[in-house]
Amino acid sequence: AALLAGDMVTAGQAIEGDLFHERYRQNLVREFATIKQVAKENGAYATYLSGAGPTVMVLASHDKMPAIKAELQKQSF
Known about the structure:
The protein is mainly α and 77 residues long. The protein has helices at 2-5, 8-16, 22-25, 32-41, 65-74; strands at 46-49, 56-59. The protein has a single domain, classed as 2-Layer Sandwich (Alpha-Beta Plaits). Helices cover 48% and strands 10% of the residues. A two-stranded antiparallel sheet has the order 1-2.
């Protein structure tokens, strides 16, 4: 509902509130913790695994994406 309403802050909190599944799956994607940290430091609302991985999704506003992308590329992602 938050995504449809355009409330990215609430959507991000809900997505990152998945403490049940993600803590088990995140270890399957070695780069996940680094990507999540970089995204958060650069203004992302949330970073999460799609399914069991390995796809990592970042929820961020369009204006934050260039900085997130640039920082991830610096780290060879």
